Every structure is written in C-alpha cells, then in structure tokens.
Amino acid sequence: MDFTSDNAAGAAPEILAALSRVNAGTEASYGNDAVTVGLVRRFSEVFEREVAVYPVVTGTAANALALAALTPPHGAVMCHELAHVHVDECGAPEMFSGGAKLVPLSGASARIEPAALEAALAALPAGVVHHVQPAALTLTQSTELGAVYTPDEIRALVEIARGRGLRVHMDGARFANALATLGLSPAEATWKAGIDIMSFGATKNGALAAEAVIVFDPALARDLAFRRKRAGHLLSKMRFVSAQLEAYLEDGLWLRLAAHANAMTGRLAAGLAALPDTTLHVEPQANEIFVRLQTNAIARLRKGGARFHPWPMPGDDAQARTVRLVTSFQSQQSEIDAFLTLAAG
Fold first, then answer.
1. Which residue from 86, 68, 79 is spatially nearest to 231, judged by alpha carbons?
2. Are 307 and 299 in contact (CB under 8 A)?
3. Does residue 313 lie within any of the structural domains?
4. What is the mean pLDDT of residues 57-85?
5. Which of 33, 51, 192, 317 has the most CB atoms at less than 10 Å from its CB?
6. Is residue 280 within 8 Å of residue 261, measured between CB atoms?
7. What pLDDT was estimated at residue 219?
C-alpha cells in the first residue's frame, strides 16, 4: 500500500528488457547511436509531425532546458503557483535561463485561469525596462492536483499568450496519464492545441530514468543541443536512455501503463468518496488523489502499513487532514481494497 508517489514504483519489465538488449555490443556515443537516431523518427510518428528530440534523465532537466530555450535572462515565465517548476525544482529554470523570473498565477485544480494570465500580463507592460518581459507560458499536464487541461482550455490560454508573443511549454511529467483520460492523440493534446515545446515524461510511468524535450517548432531547437551539453545532460551512453523511451512507446505501452494507474485511482477515489467524513478536494482525472481524512483514520492506515504523504490544505484541522495518494502502473486492486478497509475502520 505505497501511495507516496508514482516515482516509488519500479520499472516496467518491457523497459528493463530493452535495456538488456541495448547493452549487447558497442554503439556510437553522445546520441549518435542507432537507437537515439531512430527515436526521433518514432516520436515524429507519435506526434504526427517532424519533431526534434533531446533525451535527458530527469524532469527537472527537461523543464529547465525547455524553458531556457524560450526565455531570455530578462524574461518571465508565467506558471501556476503550484507548478513543479515554481515549487519543486530548486531554481533550476532560473539558473538554466540565466536568471529569468517565474511569475506564479492562480487557478482551481492547479489549472491556470485565463483571467489570471491576462491580469499578470497586463501588470508587465511590453517594453518597460523596469519590468521583466513575459516570454513563456508553462502548463502542467496533468496538473499538480491531478486535474487535466482539455484542448479547448489550452487553446484559450495559448490565444492570450500569443497576443503578447509568448511561447508555450507543457510539463508532461504525467502526460500519459492525461492522454489516457482525454482519449485524444498526442498531437491533438499538444501542438495542435498550440504547444511549442514539451517535457515528455516517462520515469513516473514505468521508465527507469528517461525524459525528453520534444520540440514542435524547429526554430526553437537551434540552441538546445548546446544548452543540454553545457548543463551536463548530454549522456555519453545515450542509448540507455533512448532505449527506455523506445520501449515505452512501443505498441502503446506508455498508454496502457497510464490507463492502469488511472483505473486504480478511480477505484480508490470511488471507495473513499463512499466513506463518511471523507472529502475529495478535486475529482481525480489522472493518477493522484487529494483527500481529507479523519486523523484517527490516518493513524489507522499508517499503523496498518499504508504509505502516503501529508498534503496540508485550507480547512484542515486537528480532526481531519489532507493526504495525497498516487497510484502507478504497479498498483494492484488488492492494495486499493486493503487501504479502503483500513480507512473505513
């Protein structure tokens, strides 16, 4: 009953097998291997257009490199106040961009609201030397509270951003989970809705350590190879990252793994919603649940071996507190049912 994070899960057997296969023999280094070269074609097929692909091993590197490609040192990145780039990346986007400012915005379920974006842009008038100049908008899909942007919601924000000349980035650490909910093609959920560049996540959904910066506009790719090298993220044995991503995409593995994680969240959320004195803060749309439980139920769950993180929310008190529960491709129905039995007392 480990619901601390999808990062706590292991690697999918198909991905481990791919690593074993690519370990045989020798290959060219620094991304010139056959697997990495072929990966560009594979991603281009997945996204239905020619893309540039830059594999890295952490989501922080993917986000920071992508945003640095969009934002000058005097620029600003508009993000949600709960966004991973703002809260959990230790200043990496600022460092990689040479000092760009992150501007946090509000919005329910960790989705940026159009009015908040418009207001923030109005507060930073173009050409005023005393202010940072907005350069990028970043959207997290799925969000830090487990919600999902629809393409229409993305397009509405993109339209506002384009009006000020901003480029748009998507943090897709849980992109597969969002797609499994939306039932759309990767293209429909990204560049067709106006996304210019994205951080494509795999580690949370079955990879060992594999992410990628996917660039939909070739003009944005000019400096990324140099930025990645300068940042220390050009791996000499790149084939071991690329092989994970290749296996991840093969025969829709990534979507099957995400669909399973989402289904486990659905089962867990339905069971929790049926319990008295239990409140779901957001209707889960991917693989995260934020739920306020009675403190005696929390103690009972921990004593029974369940693992999860506290997640303080407004309205918590001594009698009831919020926790975050995250399912993964490895989560089992038996774990869900055991957790619900303990929660019910």
1. 68
2. no
3. yes
4. 97
5. 51
6. no
7. 85
128 and 241 housed in the same domain: yes
Q: Confirm whether 124 is domain-assigned.
A: yes
Cis (ω within 30 of 0) for the bond into 328? no
- Express each pLDDT in 132-171 by its tens digit: 999 999 999 999 999 999 999 999 999 999 999 999 999 9
- Note the pLDDT of residue 218: 83
Pick the closest to residue 120 from 155, 80, 168 (CA basis).
80
pLDDT at residue 116, as a whole number: 97
Domain encompassing residue 219: 11-251
Rounded to a whole number of angstroms, the distance between the first and last alpha carbons of the chain is: 16
Buried b (16+ CB within 10 A) or exposed e, 251-283: eebbbbbbbbbbbbbbbbbebbeebeebeebbe
List of residues 6+ apart from 344 with CB closer than 8 A: 275
Q: Tell me the C-alpha distance between 156 and 86, whole Å.
A: 22
Digit-coded pLDDT (tens) for 231-273: 999 999 999 999 999 999 999 999 999 999 999 999 999 999 9
State the chain's mean pLDDT as an integer.
96
Query: Does residue 6 fall inside a structural domain?
Result: no
Burial class (CB in 10 A: 0-12, 13-18, 19+), 294: middle
